[in-house]
Design goal:
Largest sheet: 3 strands, antiparallel
Number of helices: 2
Shape: extended
Helix content: 40-55%
Radius of gyration: 16 Å
Number of strands: 3
Order of helices and strands: EEEHH
Distance between the termini: 45 Å
Number of domains: 1
């Protein structure tokens, strides 16, 4: 796992690898401590999803839109 920047003034990015699955995404912040917290929570979420089969909670808007698309 690592936290890095692509440019000196840009946001931090994270790179996580869990059981061969790679996750690379922006943290959306230039604060290093907030980026570390984001990395920790994202790593925990990904681990639970990959190892335990937990599914992320779906937001109400997404679920309602998917239901509306299925029922004309």
């Amino acid at each position: 796992m690592s936290i890095y920047r692509r440019s000196k003034t840009g946001p931090y990015w994270i790179r996580i690898s869990i059981s061969g699955h790679r996750i690379q995404e922006t943290t959306g912040t230039t604060d290093r401590e907030a980026a570390k917290e984001f990395e920790r929570t994202e790593s925990e979420r990904a681990w639970r999803e990959l190892k335990l089969g937990d599914r992320s909670a779906v937001q109400w808007r997404e679920a309602a839109a998917a239901l509306a698309d299925r029922n004309p």
